[in-house]
């Protein structure tokens, strides 16, 4: 945070969004009429879960997921896996222990034949911190990793590639990765999805300032910032910013940092990359996968890629 707020352009890491209130606001975003992302992916998984699971190859399937989230879309795949083999072990990786425990309770109660094994891990920093739990392969185990929701789009491309390579290192040839990626589309549709009429995305973006005030004692005045969503054509991404409405100085005691913001200067809080099929395929190839199959929603706005480790 010190580096991001003292440098230019000012920035904050998007993982800071997800305190309890931020997670609640993100869930609300997924239900907004403008935020098509979650609905489009759910449409694909609803129509093709059995085909996706059939593409996982032979063997006793175990499903791993990076970022367990609320698990509602994952349930469609877990149920398909149970239709295939009677039961399934789901090993969910997430940075939040409480989110994992809650997901375990809820999913095991809802789906007969499911065992959830939580793995507390910040996968964005590599998987070596949980190597002990991942290296042990049960005999006959066939692995499928899920990385859905287009979370891959929230990373700069070199970091995205590194995450895919970290996953590949946990797999043997024939194992698979199911990757969800949001696709390039009309810029007005994208801008509306990240700047909705009800202001939920604006509240989500500004909540990071509330969090910093609470946890680091700073005095950000939310009235003096405006949510901005911009389309960066060159880098094919939506950027979220918080724009300072006046020239102001904010003090963050825990960092002993004064942040001087000019009027209209922005703090860059998130990137959400939008991909073409070719870009997704190229990332997957460079990480050691080949794309076995891909699906889109009816509008062609979201892509789901079944990639097999080579
Ligand atoms: C979590 N991630 C895929 C979301 C996205 O669309 O990039 C986060 C988000 N930011 C604003 N709205 C949703």
Automatic annotation (TrEMBL):
One of its GO terms (molecular function) is methyltransferase activity. Gene3D superfamilies: Vaccinia Virus protein VP39. GO terms for biological process: methylation. The keyword Ribonucleoprotein does not apply. InterPro entries: EgtD, EgtD_Methyltrsf_superfamily, MeTrfase_dom, MeTrfase_EgtD-like, SAM-dependent_MTases_sf. Keywords: Coiled coil, Methyltransferase, Transferase. Residues 90-117 form a coiled coil. Residues 2-307 form the Histidine-specific methyltransferase SAM-dependent domain. PANTHER family: ERGOTHIONEINE BIOSYNTHESIS PROTEIN 1. This is Dimethylhistidine N-methyltransferase. It comes from Acidisarcina polymorpha.
């Amino acid at each position: 945070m010190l580096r991001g707020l003292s440098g230019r352009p000012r920035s904050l890491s998007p993982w800071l969004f997800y305190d309890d209130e931020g997670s609640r606001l993100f869930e609300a975003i997924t239900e907004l009429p403008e935020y098509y992302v979650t609905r489009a992916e759910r449409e694909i998984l609803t129509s093709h879960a059995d085909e996706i699971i059939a593409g996982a190859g032979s063997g006793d399937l175990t499903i791993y997921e990076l970022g367990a989230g609320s698990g509602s879309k994952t349930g469609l795949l877990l149920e398909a896996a149970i239709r295939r083999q009677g039961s399934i072990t789901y090993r969910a990786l997430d940075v939040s222990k409480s989110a994992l425990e809650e997901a375990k309770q809820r999913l095991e109660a809802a789906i007969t034949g499911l065992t959830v094994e939580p793995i507390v891990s910040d996968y964005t920093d590599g998987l070596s911190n949980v190597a002990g739990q991942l290296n042990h392969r049960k005999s006959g185990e066939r692995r499928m990793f899920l990385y859905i929701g287009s979370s891959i789009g929230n990373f700069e491309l070199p970091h995205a590639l590194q995450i895919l390579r970290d996953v590949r290192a946990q797999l043997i040839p024939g194992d698979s990765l199911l990757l969800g990626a949001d696709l390039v589309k009309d810029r007005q549709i994208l801008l509306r999805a990240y700047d909705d009429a009800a202001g939920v995305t604006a509240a989500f973006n500004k909540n990071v300032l509330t969090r910093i005030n609470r946890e680091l004692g700073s005095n950000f005045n939310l009235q003096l910032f405006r949510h901005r969503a911009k389309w960066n054509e060159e880098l094919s991404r939506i950027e979220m910013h918080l724009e300072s409405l006046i020239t102001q100085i904010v003090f963050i005691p825990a960092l002993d940092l004064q942040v001087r913001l000019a009027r209209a200067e922005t703090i860059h809080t998130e990137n959400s990359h939008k991909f073409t099929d070719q870009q997704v395929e190229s990332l997957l190839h460079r990480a050691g996968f080949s794309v076995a199959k891909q699906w889109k929603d009816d509008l062609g706005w979201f892509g789901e890629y079944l990639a097999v480790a080579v």
